[in-house]
Amino acid sequence: MNLSDVNRGIHKHKKRKRVGRGPGSGHGKTSGRGHKGQGALAGWTAPPIFEGGASPLIRRIPKRGFHNAWARTVLAINLSALDGAYESGAHVTIESLREKHLARGRFDELKILGDGALTKTLKISAHRFSRSALEKIQQAGGEALVLEGPKPLTKGVAKADSRKK
Fold first, then answer.
1. pTM to 2 decimals?
2. DSSP string, the chain
């Protein structure tokens, strides 16, 4: 490979293809659409799963199980991760976990699991705790605070502040 080959074929300001501009352009007459057929029609574009008229793969594969789109996503963090990231006497919150990059992405609930040893006294706030995690936190002299999750929706009941008086 030569240094001159590195950028060959890469154009910073590439001109757009101007179709239907005569036979000399190479894209005249049918404008690159071929003769007749489905793709030659105006306004027709293939959907992303289109496979030339064959039954799409997404429809050929059997569907199994159930996916709950409204299920709450739970982020699980082990005590060993907290033991390494925090000093003794610290307050572990969701915000402090985000700052230390232990809680990433989107989640609805935080659960503390009991894997590993906890040698420091920590005050931990989370939505859920495993039984072993609670035991280890109490043995280390720490405190486990259970946060309230989002309230479940009850069908047919209006919010108290939105009712007309």
1. 0.59
2. --GGGTTTT--TTPPPP--SS-GGGSS-TTTTS-SSSGGGSTT----TT-BTTBPPHHHHSPP-S---TTPPPEEEEEHHHHHHHS-TT-EE-HHHHHHTTSS-S--SEEEEE--S---S--EEEESEE-HHHHHHHHHTT-EEEEPP-PPPP-TT---GGGS--
